[in-house]
Design brief:
It contains 11 helices and 16 strands. It is α/β, with parallel strands linked by helices. The strands form 4 sheets. A 6-stranded mixed sheet has the order 10-7-4-5-6-11. A 5-stranded mixed sheet has the order 14-13-12-15-16, with helices on both faces. A 3-stranded antiparallel sheet has the order 1-3-2. Helix 2 packs across helix 3. The longest helix is centred in the last third of the chain and has 19 residues. It is globular, with a radius of gyration of 21 Å. The two termini are about 20 Å apart.
Length: about 375
């Protein structure tokens, strides 16, 4: 029911419509909405136009009633956000990070970041989504052998952070969070910008703390229920994919889905840090290092075309700092390859993701509130 009200935006829905959509009886809907109202999660949104009888009372979600945090642990940077129930960012911090310094140092950085974005006078956070480079075991909450950082293998990051923060923690791959953020952008577009105030960082340690508006335009043409199938391609310090299939993140049987960067494009090509040769990651990032962004986009497009042919997705969404530095080059380059290799005239749309990985981490943390078991 909360998920339906979130999707309806500030206009809200009537109890009769909630009963129809959920299959519950009107009496059950009345009891549930009364409880949600008492908890401050929903409120009246006015009355619908009369169709001959008494005008219906509309109900809406109260986004500011609860918050969650999302943390993106990258190889050289950490970014944290606090979002409301509509997924709008109301607080943010960012700073450098040395992932190679080891688990203990990274745990301390995450704890400090969550403290920075938390509301000191508001309600406690519902939970924290933490995302990091893969591979990792989403279900067990443990890190895998991250390419280039073998010391992380087996570290129980979720459990350690839950103990330090005293909050529910969800651990996932950064690319899965990117997929969730991209797919959730249409929802945030239904809500006006959240009120957020800029704060100064009291520590002076190169952290930027600021309020941020969370209203993200729906650039993908999603209507009503959001996207059903899309792939999010992340190009940053590494290269990976997040898969949004059938209305949710697809992780695979061993949480290993989306290791997109290590498909081999060039037999006997340059060595990759994963141990193989000619992987799309080493080819694409090598072109970036040479300053040849059109070639990097072409390589990414060739790998994306393989994925599109395999999964038949509706949309290919691009994100990560490399893409963000030259968005037009990557959207055009990937789109050109997909057009050239398309077997069907109805090829997928190529677009920017429209939301960051930290936002996706927070979106995953909100999942249980809206009936999505992540």
């Amino acid at each position: 029911m909360l998920d339906l009200l979130r999707g309806a935006g500030p206009a809200g829905l009537g109890r009769a419509e909630l009963a129809t959509r959920t299959g519950l009886t009107p009496q059950a809907v009345s009891k549930i909405t009364a409880r949600l109202g008492a908890d401050g999660l929903i409120a009246e949104a006015g009355r619908a136009a009369s169709t001959g009888g008494k005008p219906r009372t509309l109900l809406r979600l109260v986004p500011q009633a609860r918050h969650a945090a999302g943390v993106h642990v990258d190889r050289d940077e950490l970014r944290a956000v606090r979002v409301d129930l509509a997924g709008r960012v109301v607080g943010e911090c960012r700073g450098p990070l040395d992932f190679g310094a080891g688990p203990e140092a990274v745990v301390e950085a995450v704890v400090r970041a969550v403290a920075r974005v938390a509301d000191p006078v508001g309600l406690p956070l519902l939970g924290v989504g933490v995302v990091a480079p893969g591979p990792l075991d989403h279900r067990a909450g443990t890190m895998g052998r991250v390419t280039g950082f073998p010391s992380w293998k087996g570290f129980p990051l979720r459990g350690v952070l839950q103990g330090r923060l005293g909050l529910p923690v969800l651990l996932d791959k950064d690319t899965n969070a990117g997929a969730a953020a991209a797919a959730g952008a249409w929802l945030r577009a239904t809500w006006p910008d959240a009120d957020a105030d800029a704060d100064a960082d009291a520590d002076g340690d190169a952290w930027l703390v600021a309020g941020a508006a969370g209203g993200v335009p729906d650039a993908y043409g999603y209507a009503g229920g959001g996207p059903r199938t899309c792939v999010y391609l992340h190009v940053g310090t590494g290269l990976g994919a997040g898969l949004w299939l059938g209305g949710g993140v697809y992780r695979g049987a061993r949480s290993a889905a989306g290791e997109f960067g290590h498909q081999v494009l060039l037999m006997d090509g340059p060595p990759c840090r994963c141990g193989a040769r000619g992987c799309v990651e080493v080819l694409c990032l090598g072109a970036v290092a040479r300053g040849d962004l059109p070639e990097a986009a072409r390589i990414l497009g060739e790998a994306a075309a393989n994925l599109v042919a395999l999964l038949d997705v509706d949309r290919v969404l691009l994100g990560g700092r490399v893409v963000e530095a030259a968005p037009d080059v990557f959207v055009a380059g990937v789109g050109a390859v997909l057009a050239a290799r398309a077997l069907d005239p109805a090829r997928p749309v190529v677009a920017l993701a429209g939301a960051g990985v930290a936002e996706g981490a927070a979106e995953l943390a909100l999942g249980p509130v809206f009936g999505r078991a992540e």
